[in-house]
Write a structure and sequence with these properties.
heterotrimer, A alpha/beta, B alpha/beta, C alpha+beta, A: 8 helices, 17 strands, elongated, B: 13 strands
C-alpha cells in the first residue's frame, strides 16, 4: 500500500549528531512511513554535521531539510515552528513527528495552534487507519497510564515519549538527500528568542547522569542528606530526590526526579528511602539497574527494584561509602 | 500587574491508578483532587508578583462544578479573582479547552482590561497535552514560552529561564505574554487558616461554555505492564553492603 | 545477575541467605494486623509463653497504613467507663515502660455553662478512678496555654498526666521483643486471601495468605477498620465501621520554633466544638469530631498502592472542616490566625466506630478460635492486647472486659445498617455531654414485645435495651402523682430529671401498695436439655442445681478467677431440662459462656428461646388475688411456694409461672408464648383493675424496686473484680460439685475481705446553691475530709448504683467500701458535680433496707 503525503520528523541535533530523543522520534516516524509506503523526511534547523547526516541515513530518511533562518540568533519557538510548518505545507505531509522534549512539544504545539490541528503528545506507537486517521498509544500521567486514541486531521501532529520508545536504526540505511531551506525571520519570530545559555556550575547533571543516588522521605531530614551526598560524590553520581523531599524544602527542585521533575535514565539508580509514588516512578522508568535501600523489604518501590538492602539507611548508606573508600585505598 | 493563571482539577493518585470499568477514565471514587503540581507553582508565582507589584492574581479553571474547590484552594493562598468555565464533567481536548479560555479571556479583558501575564502549568498532570498555553497565546497573538522555572519582571518585559541540556536558557519576553511554568519555579506556600476562611467567602465568576468534539479521541486507558520482578534482597542492614559493592563492580560503576 | 550467581556470591561473602518464608506450615496463632494492637498482642502472647506466632500485615513495617499510622497519639486518662479507664491506665504504664511516652498535660475547656457542669462530672469520675485533675480558671488556663483566647472560655479541667506516645515505635519495640523471645515471625506485605474452617464449620483451621497457607487453631483479627472484611472471610462478623475523623496540621508555628521535643504545651480539648488542638513539634494538629459523620464501607478502603497517602488517610474534604476552622481560630486566634502559618497536612483519617462505642474483644461467637481485637484507640491498645492475651491464654483477664466482649451483640446489631446508623449517631457525641441514661434514636423500634401497642397506648416512655422497646414508665399513671404527692422525691436539677419522671416513683409506691404488671419480654430465655444438662450447669453455677423439678435457683456464675461472669435464675423443668433466664443486656455474652462450656460429647444442648417466650412480672401485695382471678390452679403460698415454678392456666392460655421477685414483692414471673402474650396481658390487666393493678415500667424493676431490696445487678455491683464474699452473697457452705472458679472462690473465703458492698443513703441533698441533687451512679465516695477511699487491693470506692427508694423516702447509693469504713452509721461523703454531699452507711452486706425480713416475698 502506497499512500501520499510524506512523514516529516523534526530533528534536534548538535555537532555530535542527532539527540537521542530525536532518534526515538525518527524511529516512530519511520514506522509510520514504512508501513504505508510513505517517504520519511526530516526537518532540522541549522547545518547538519557529518554525524547527523550519517544518522539520518541510518534511520532511512530520504530527504532532509536544513533550515537557516536569517535574522534569528538562537532558538525561537515561533520562528522554528513557522519554518517547520513552511516545509510541512510545501511538501504535502501526512504526519509530523517530533521528540517529546521541551522544544519538540513546543514546536508541534505551535504548529497545532497555527493550523488548528490536534496534537498528540508523548506517543509510544502509531499506525495508520483507513481514511488517514492515526491509531496511537500515548503516555498519560507521566507514563503511569497509557491512552489508546484515534487522531484525525491532516497532517497528524505528534510527539514521541522520550522514555517510551527505543531508538532503532533502519535495517537498511539509505542515502539522504539534503536540501537547503532559507527563510527570513519576521517580527513575530523575534519576540521570543533565547538570549543566552548559562551553564550550571558543579555537580553531575541529573538528566544525563550515569549513576543517580536518590533520597526520599526515608532520609528523614535535610541533615540526613549528608550521607547521600557523600555516597554520590564517591560514585560520581548525581543526587535525585522525591517530591516529598523538595516539598519539605530539604532539597532544591532541580534535584527532583519524577513526573514534574527530571526524568532520568542512568545505568544505576540507587534509591534510598523512597516509597514509590506514581509521581516518582514516572521519572525513573528508564533506569537500567535499580537498587533500593529501604527499612522494609516489602515497600512498594521494591517491586520496581532489581536488588534491595533492607534496613536503616542512615546506617547502610555510610557503610557503603566506607566500603567504597576501603576498596579504593586498598 | 494583572496576572491570570489557568489551572486544572486533577485527581491525587497513589502508586497505582485504578481505571473505571469501561477503562475510559480514572476511577476517582476514592481519590481527592488538586490542581496539577505545575499549576500550584503558577498560582504561587502570580501571588508573589502581585504581592511585589500590586495588581490582581486571577485564577481560571475549566472543569466540572467541583473544580470550584481548586479555585478556592488558589484563593486560600492569595488569588484575588476566581473564574470558572463550568463543564458537565466530560474531558475537553486541548483545542477546545484553549478555545474556551481564549473566549473567556477576551470577554474578561473587554470588561476590565488586559492581563499582562497569563500563566499555565507546563502540562496537566493527567492528560499531559503540553499545548493549551501555546494555543491560547497564538489565538491572542501574544508571545509565549514553556518549561519556565524562573521569571523576573522587568519594565514591559519578563526574563524567563528554563533548563536546557544541563544549563539554563534565558529569554526576554515582551508583555503581555503567556508563560507555561514548571514545578520548581518556587515552593508554593501552604494555605493559612485565615486564607481558607477568605477563600470560602470569595465570589466565583461562572462563565458557561459549550462542549465541542475534539479530533483526538480517547478509546481506552490502560496500565502499562511493569517488566520488573520484585527485588532480590541483598541482605539486612549492612550485611548486604559487600554484595552491593560486587554488583557495582560487575556493572562497571566501580572500576 | 541470576539468583544462582547471587547465591554463590553470598556464599563467597559469607552472608547467610535471606530468609524466605514457605507456606503451609503450622502456627500456634496467626495475628492479623500490625498496628498498635497486633504488635502488642504478639508481645503479650509471647510473654505468656506462646511460641510459633506469626504476625501478618498487607502493608509494610513499621507503618502498614492503618489507623495507628495517622493517630494523633495522645492519651487522656479519664473515661466514664471503669473498664476503659483501666485499659488506658495499663496502656500508659506499658508505653512508659517502652520509653515512648511524653507527658504534656491536657486541658478540657468549657465554653458553656452546661459544659462547665459536665467537666465537674468528669472531675468526679477522675477522682473515682484516682486520676489527678483540677479545675482551672481562664487565667489558669492561660498560664499553661498562653495562646488560648480565654475570653471565650468559662474554665478548664486540667489533667497533668495527659501525654503523647509514639505508637509506631511502641509497636516496633513490642514486635521486636516478641522476635527476640523467638516467638514471632513477621510477614509484612502479605495479604490475607481467606480463612478456612474445620469441616464442621466451627473452628478456624487455615489462614490463606499471599505468602502461603498457615494452619492454626487461633486467629486474632487486629485489623482495625478492615476487621469486618477479614472476619467475614471466616463467616464471622466484627460489627464496626470505618468512619472519618478529620485532622489538619498547621505550621510552622513561630511560638513552637524553640520548643524541644514533640510536645511542650498541654493538649487542649475544646469540648463544646468537638475538637482538639495538640502541638506536634513545630506544628499544631487540629482534629475534629464535629463534622458530619462520614461512613466508609470496609470493602471500599483503597489499597496501599491506590492511596495517595495511606489507605486510612483518605482525601480531605475541605467543606466538612470549614466550620471547625472558624471554631479553632476563635479559640487560638493569634496562633492559628497567623498568615505565615499554613495547613501542611490535612486528612480524612479513618477510625473504627462500633454501635455502642466500646471495643470489640474476645472470641467471636460464630467461629471458635477466631478472636476479635478491634476498635481500639491508641490509648487502650496495649492494655487491650494484654487483657486479650490473658483471655486467649485461658484465664479471665485481670481487667473485666465484659463491656467490650464481642459476644455482647444480638444478630440485628451485627447488621451493616445497624452498625452504620449507630456509628453515625454516636460520632458527634465523641466529646458530647452524654447523659448516663441517654437513649439512641436511630432504627427504633426494632424488637417489640407482643403488648407493645397496648403499652404505647398507655403512654409508655420507651427505653431501648439491645433493640427491645421497654416501657420505663407510663404516662397513664400520671394520676398517681397526686395520690403520692410529697413522697415522690421529685428532682429539681435538670440533669437528674432528664430521662426520668416522678411517675417512676409513683408506680413504685402503687406497686408496693397494691400490684404492678411489668413487661419483661426482653429477658433472654435459654433451655439446656439432655442427659448432660445437669452436669454442664453444675459446672458453671455456684448454686446447687441438683434440686427437685419445679425449683427456681438464683445463682451466680464465676470466671476462673472467681470474678462474676453472670447472675441469673435457672428453673429445673425436668430431670434433664433446665431453663436459664437472664437479662437482655448481658444475655448474649452469657449465652456464649454456656455454649462454650457444653460437654463436648453432645450430651447437653442449648436452645435460645428468647424469641419464643414473653415474660410479665406480676408483683405486689395483691398479686395473688389478681392471679387467682385468672386461674383455677392452686397458687396459695403453700401450694405454690417461693422459688418454685409450674405451668398453670391463665385465662385461655397456659403459662409457666415462676414465684420469684427482683423487687421484693409477692408475685410471679409469667412466661407465655409470644403469640399468646397479648392475651395473657389482657387477662391479667382486666383481672387486676379492682385490686389497683397498674402497669409498672422498668424504672421500678431495674432501679427503685431492686435498690430498696439491696439486690445486686450484674455489671454494676457484680463485676469480675469483686468477689461473692465482698458482694455479701456468700452462702454458709459451698456445693461439693466442682464449678468454674470454685478453687479461687474457696481461697477467697479463706481470706479476710478488704471491702464490703454497702447500702448508703444521702443525708442532705442540698447543693451550695440550694438545689436538691440526686446522684446517678459512678460518683466517688470519700471521707468526711474529702480523701478518696481505696481498699487493701487498691480498688476505689465509687457508687455502683444509685436511685430513689420511694418507700423509704431516701436516695440509695450502693458502693464497695474498705472494711475500716464499712460500718453501719459511718458518715462519709459523696462527690457530685463538684460538691460533696453527706451520706450514711445504712447496711453492710445484703440486708435490704426495705422489708429486711423479706416478709413480702414469702407472704
Amino acid at each position: 500500500m502506497t499512500m501520499t503525503g510524506r512523514v516529516l520528523c523534526f530533528v534536534e541535533h548538535d555537532d555530535a549528531g542527532i539527540l537521542d530523543p530525536s532518534l526515538r522520534a525518527l524511529t516512530l516516524a519511520r514506522s509510520l512511513s514504512s508501513s504505508s509506503g510513505r517517504s520519511l523526511v526530516a526537518a532540522l534547523v541549522g547545518e547538519a554535521s557529518a554525524a547527523t547526516i550519517e544518522s539520518l541515513s541510518k534511520y532511512a530518511v530520504s530527504d532532509a531539510y536544513e533550515v537557516s533562518i536569517e535574522g534569528l540568533d538562537g532558538y525561537s519557538p515561533a520562528g522554528w515552528a513557522r519554518a517547520v510548518l513552511d516545509i510541512v505545507e510545501s511538501l504535502g505531509t501526512s504526519a509530523v513527528v517530533a521528540s517529546g522534549t521541551e522544544r519538540g512539544q513546543e514546536i508541534m504545539a505551535s504548529i497545532g495552534a497555527i493550523t488548528g490541528l490536534a496534537m498528540a503528545a508523548n506517543c509510544l506507537s502509531a499506525s495508520w487507519l483507513e481514511a488517514g486517521a492515526l491509531q496511537l498509544s500515548r503516555q498519560r500521567w507521566g507514563g503511569s497510564l497509557i491512552e489508546d486514541a484515534v487522531l484525525e486531521g491532516a497532517p497528524a501532529l505528534l510527539t514521541v515519549a522520550s522514555d517510551g520508545v527505543l531508538a532503532a536504526p533502519a535495517e537498511t540505511p539509505i542515502a539522504t538527500t539534503l536540501h537547503d531551506v532559507r527563510t527570513v525571520a519576521n517580527d513575530l519570530d523575534r519576540r521570543v528568542v533565547v538570549r543566552e545559555w548559562i551553564a550550571r556550575g558543579g555537580g553531575v547533571a541529573l538528566a544525563n547522569a550515569r549513576v543517580v543516588v536518590g533520597g526520599g522521605r526515608g532520609v528523614g531530614s535535610e541533615e540526613g542528606f549528608a550521607a547521600i551526598d557523600e555516597l554520590a560524590n564517591l560514585l560520581g553520581a548525581a543526587v535525585g530526590v522525591s517530591r516529598v523531599v523538595t516539598s519539605a524544602g530539604w532539597r532544591p527542585h532541580a534535584q527532583q526526579v519524577g513526573q514534574t521533575g527530571t526524568k532520568i535514565s542512568p545505568d544505576l539508580y540507587l534509591a534510598c528511602g523512597i516509597s514509590g509514588a506514581t509521581q516518582h516512578l514516572a521519572g525513573c522508568r528508564s533506569a537500567k539497574h535499580v537498587v533500593a535501600i529501604n527499612t522494609d523489604a516489602e515497600a512498594p518501590f521494591l517491586a520496581r527494584a532489581d536488588f534491595a538492602l533492607v534496613g536503616d539507611l542512615s546506617v547502610i548508606v555510610p557503610a557503603i561509602s566506607e566500603a567504597i573508600r576501603l576498596r579504593t585505598s586498598s | 500587574m494583572n496576572v491570570l493563571v489557568c489551572v486544572k482539577r486533577v485527581p491525587m493518585v497513589g502508586a497505582r491508578i485504578v481505571l473505571s470499568p469501561d477503562a475510559r477514565e480514572v476511577d476517582v471514587r476514592q481519590l481527592g483532587f488538586t490542581m496539577s503540581p505545575h499549576e500550584e507553582c503558577a498560582v504561587e508565582e502570580a501571588v508573589r508578583i502581585v504581592e511585589q507589584r500590586g495588581g490582581t492574581a486571577s485564577v481560571m479553571t475549566l472543569g466540572p462544578g467541583e473544580a470550584s474547590e481548586q479555585l478556592r484552594d488558589a484563593a486560600s493562598i492569595g488569588a484575588t479573582h476566581l473564574v470558572h468555565l463550568v463543564t458537565d464533567g466530560r474531558e475537553w481536548d486541548a483545542v477546545a479547552t484553549a478555545e474556551a479560555i481564549v473566549n473567556a479571556v477576551r470577554a474578561l479583558e473587554e470588561e476590565r482590561g488586559s492581563y499582562d501575564l497569563i500563566l499555565f502549568g507546563n502540562e496537566a498532570a493527567d492528560t499531559g497535552d503540553y499545548q493549551v498555553g501555546i494555543r491560547v497565546a497564538q489565538a491572542l497573538g501574544r508571545p509565549s514560552i514553556g518549561g519556565i522555572k524562573h521569571v523576573a519582571l522587568g519594565e514591559g518585559t519578563l526574563e524567563a529561564r528554563r533548563e536546557f541540556r544541563g544549563g539554563d536558557e534565558v529569554y526576554d519576553i515582551p508583555l503581555p505574554c503567556v508563560i507555561a511554568v514548571k514545578e520548581g519555579i518556587n515552593l508554593p506556600r501552604y494555605p493559612s487558616l485565615p486564607g481558607r476562611m477568605r477563600a470560602k467567602k470569595m465570589a466565583i465568576e461562572e462563565i458557561p461554555v459549550e462542549w465541542r468534539d475534539g479530533s483526538l479521541r480517547t478509546e481506552r486507558l490502560r496500565i502499562p505492564v511493569e517488566p520488573r520482578e520484585r527485588a532480590e534482597i541483598l541482605g539486612n542492614g549492612v550485611e548486604g553492603v559487600p554484595a552491593l559493592v560486587a554488583l557495582l563492580e560487575q556493572w562497571g560503576i566501580l572500576s | 545477575m541470576t539468583t544462582n550467581q547471587l547465591t554463590s556470591m553470598y556464599e563467597k561473602l559469607g552472608i547467610p541467605d535471606a530468609e524466605r518464608t514457605s507456606g503451609g506450615e503450622a502456627k500456634r496463632a496467626v495475628i492479623i494486623g500490625a498496628g498498635i494492637v497486633g504488635n502488642s498482642l504478639a508481645y503479650h502472647l509471647a510473654r505468656l509463653g506462646w511460641r510459633d506466632l506469626v504476625l501478618v500485615d498487607k502493608g509494610p513495617m513499621p507503618n502498614p497504613g492503618g489507623s495507628t499510622g495517622h493517630a494523633s497519639n495522645f492519651i487522656f486518662p479519664v473515661d466514664y467507663s471503669k473498664m476503659m479507664t483501666e485499659l488506658t491506665a495499663d496502656s500508659t504504664a506499658q508505653y512508659k515502660e517502652l520509653g515512648v511516652f511524653t507527658e504534656s498535660g491536657g486541658i478540657e475547656v468549657a465554653r458553656t455553662e452546661a459544659r462547665s457542669q459536665e467537666l465537674r462530672r468528669r472531675m468526679a469520675a477522675a477522682k473515682a478512678w484516682g486520676i489527678p485533675c483540677e479545675m482551672l480558671s481562664p487565667e489558669g488556663v492561660a498560664k499553661l496555654v498562653p495562646y488560648v483566647d480565654i475570653s471565650i472560655i468559662i474554665e478548664g479541667l486540667y489533667f497533668p498526666t495527659v501525654g503523647v506516645v509514639d505508637s509506631l515505635r511502641a509497636g516496633t519495640l513490642m514486635r521486636e521483643r516478641a522476635q527476640e523471645m523467638g516467638a514471632l515471625e513477621v510477614r509484612a506485605n502479605t495479604e490475607i486471601l481467606g480463612i478456612d474452617l474445620t469441616d464442621d464449620g466451627e473452628r478456624v483451621r487455615t489462614v490463606r495468605t499471599s505468602s502461603g497457607d498457615i494452619d492454626t487453631d487461633v486467629v486474632a483479627v487486629c485489623c482495625g477498620v478492615w476487621s469486618p472484611k477479614i472476619a467475614k472471610m471466616a463467616g464471622a462478623s466484627i460489627p464496626l465501621t470505618p468512619i472519618v475523623h478529620q485532622m489538619i496540621s498547621v505550621g510552622p508555628i513561630p511560638l513552637f520554633a524553640d520548643t524541644v521535643g514533640e510536645i511542650v504545651y498541654p493538649i487542649v480539648r475544646d469540648m463544646d466544638t468537638n475538637m482538639y488542638e495538640r502541638q506536634h513539634g513545630g506544628d499544631m494538629e487540629v482534629g475534629s469530631y464535629a463534622h458530619r459523620p462520614i461512613i466508609v464501607n470496609p470493602e471500599e478502603i483503597p489499597s496501599i498502592e491506590e492511596s495517595a497517602l495511606s489507605p486510612t488517610e483518605m482525601p480531605f474534604t475541605q467543606d466538612d472542616f470549614d466550620p471547625q476552622l472558624q471554631d479553632a481560630l476563635e479559640l487560638m486566634p493569634d496562633l492559628l490566625g497567623d498568615e505565615r502559618v499554613g495547613v501542611r497536612y490535612a486528612i480524612n483519617g479513618l477510625i473504627s466506630m462500633t454501635p455502642d462505642g466500646h471495643p470489640l474483644l474476645g472470641e467471636t461467637p460464630e467461629v471458635k478460635g477466631l478472636w476479635s481485637v478491634a476498635a481500639s484507640w491508641i490509648k487502650e491498645g496495649p492494655g487491650i492486647a494484654r487483657a486479650v492475651a490473658e483471655w486467649m491464654d485461658g484465664d479471665a483477664p485481670e481487667i473485666d472486659l465484659h463491656e467490650a466482649d464481642i459476644a455482647r451483640f444480638y444478630d440485628h446489631q451485627r447488621t451493616r445498617v445497624h452498625v452504620t446508623a449507630r456509628a453515625r449517631e454516636g460520632f458527634n457525641k465523641m466529646y458530647g455531654i452524654v447523659h448516663p441514661a441517654e437513649q439512641w434514636e436511630s432504627l427504633r423500634p426494632t424488637r417489640l414485645s407482643p403488648v407493645y401497642d397496648r403499652e404505647r397506648d398507655l403512654g409508655a416512655f420507651f427505653y431501648e435495651t439491645m433493640g427491645w422497646e421497654r416501657p420505663y414508665w407510663y404516662e397513664s399513671n400520671a394520676g398517681l402523682l397526686q395520690k403520692y404527692e410529697g413522697r415522690l422525691m421529685e428532682r429539681e436539677a435538670e440533669w437528674e430529671s432528664r430521662w426520668w419522671s416522678p411517675i417512676i416513683n409513683a408506680e413504685h409506691l402503687a406497686m408496693r401498695d397494691a400490684c404492678g404488671l411489668t413487661d419483661l419480654s426482653a429477658f433472654v430465655v435459654m433451655d439446656v436439655t439432655g442427659p448432660g444438662a445437669l452436669g454442664a450447669l453444675q459446672h458453671l453455677a455456684v448454686a446447687q442445681l441438683d434440686v427437685p423439678i419445679g425449683r427456681v435457683v438464683y445463682t451466680s456464675l464465676l470466671d476462673e478467677r472467681a470474678g462474676f461472669k453472670s447472675d441469673l435464675t435457672i428453673m429445673r423443668l425436668g430431670h434433664d431440662h433446665f431453663r436459664v433466664v437472664t437479662g437482655a443486656h448481658t444475655g448474649m455474652t452469657e449465652k456464649k459462656w454456656f455454649v462454650d462450656h457444653l460437654p463436648s460429647d453432645g450430651s447437653a444442648q442449648l436452645s435460645d428461646l428468647t424469641s419464643s417466650w414473653s415474660t410479665f412480672g406480676l408483683w405486689g401485695p395483691r398479686a395473688r388475688d389478681i392471679l387467682a382471678k385468672c386461674t383455677s390452679d392452686d397458687i396459695s403460698h403453700e401450694g405454690f411456694p417461693f422459688a418454685t415454678c409450674r405451668t398453670i392456666e391463665l385465662g385461655g392460655v397456659r403459662v409457666l409461672a415462676s414465684r420469684i421477685s427482683y423487687i421484693g414483692e409477692l408475685g410471679w414471673e409469667i412466661y407465655v408464648p409470644i403469640e399468646e402474650g397479648a392475651k395473657a396481658w389482657d387477662t391479667i390487666f382486666a383481672a387486676g383493675q379492682e385490686f389497683g393493678l397498674v402497669p409498672v415500667g422498668i424504672g421500678v424493676y431495674a432501679t427503685t424496686g431492686r435498690l430498696e431490696k439491696g439486690y445486686r445487678a450484674l455489671s454494676s455491683e457484680l463485676t469480675a473484680d469483686f468477689t461473692i464474699i465482698e458482694a455479701g452473697m456468700a452462702r454458709p457452705t459451698v456445693k461439693k460439685q466442682d464449678f468454674i472458679g470454685r478453687e479461687a472462690y474457696l481461697a477467697q473465703r479463706d481470706e479476710t475481705p478488704v471491702a464490703h458492698l454497702c447500702t448508703l443513703t444521702v443525708n442532705d441533698h442540698r447543693s451550695a446553691s440550694g438545689v436538691a441533687r440526686y446522684m446517678l451512679g459512678g460518683e466517688p465516695i470519700v471521707s468526711l475530709e474529702g480523701e478518696r477511699l481505696v481498699d487493701g487491693k487498691g480498688r476505689p470506692s465509687y457508687v455502683t448504683s444509685a436511685g430513689s427508694a420511694p418507700s423509704l423516702g431516701k436516695h440509695i447509693l450502693l458502693s464497695y467500701l474498705p472494711t475500716n469504713v464499712a460500718e453501719v452509721g459511718q458518715q462519709l461523703m459523696v462527690e457530685y458535680m463538684g460538691e460533696s454531699f453527706p451520706v450514711t452507711v445504712d447496711v453492710v452486706g445484703s440486708t435490704p433496707l426495705f422489708d429486711p425480713e423479706n416478709l413480702r416475698v414469702r407472704s
